Amino acid sequence: MSPPGRPKGEYRSAQHEDTPVSLIDVPATPWPYPFAPGKTALVIIDMQRDFVEPGGFGASLGNDVTLLHTAIQPIANLLAAWRARGWPIVHTRESHRADLSDCPPAKRLRGEPTLRIGEPGAMGRLLIRGEPGTSIIPALTPAVGELVIDKPGKGMFWATGLHEMLHAQGVTHLVFTGVTTEVCVQTSMREANDRGYDCLIVSDATESYFPEFKAAALAMIVAQGAIVGWHTPSAVLLEAVAAPG
Asked: Which residues of 156-195 are buried (b: 16+ CB within 10 A; e: fewer)?
């Protein structure tokens, strides 16, 4: 089914009202997602060593980082598809300045990690820009020309200028992947929805240290008629965008 009031096959973004685009209907929950070729950016949230590898910030919080590893291959598959088509790609890294001037105490002192943000760990100072731990994992290393955003908050738009960058590229739709589903991914997706983007989260290309949190986040995103956005598996999305028009 399609949402009421949306003509099949055409969409005018609130950001680009005079620019109709041809859409691909991607099977998704709660109904097909209106994918806009060339105007849909792939967003890869925080697939950095500090969250995914042992010895980083995620592990310092007592989490089993291997629970995030199942998202890596689905993200890599999407990344290859986007690169093959020359579509826009955004990588984010949660990170802070060396002097922690952009990390308020309300964030740094929360929780009970064995090491806090800025303290030295196995991969350098945790979540500090330029340290080895903040780099994207090798399997998903950004290519030249892809946007790499260092964000001091959980959401990707706060204090980054990303909205203006995406707007300049004519991006109207966003496909979300990365970690963790219920924190930085969901926060970024909600921020994007408020800014007028139509958003899809890829269910097997995102993960959490807590499977029940991931399930709850996906349910909240699509509730009440895709109030924040849609979700679908990577294989379904890839099949839809590969189909001849």
From this structure: bbeebebbeebeeeebbbbbbbbbbbbbbbbbbbbbbbeb
Residue 243 DSSP SS3: coil
CB-based burial label for 225 (10 Å; 0-12, 13-18, 19+):
exposed
Dump pLDDT digits (tens) for 23-46: 999 999 999 999 999 999 999 999
Prediction pTM value: 0.92
Catalytic residue numbers read 46, 151, 184
d(CA 70, CA 125): 26
Separation between Cα atoms, residue 123 and residue 141, nearest integer Å: 17
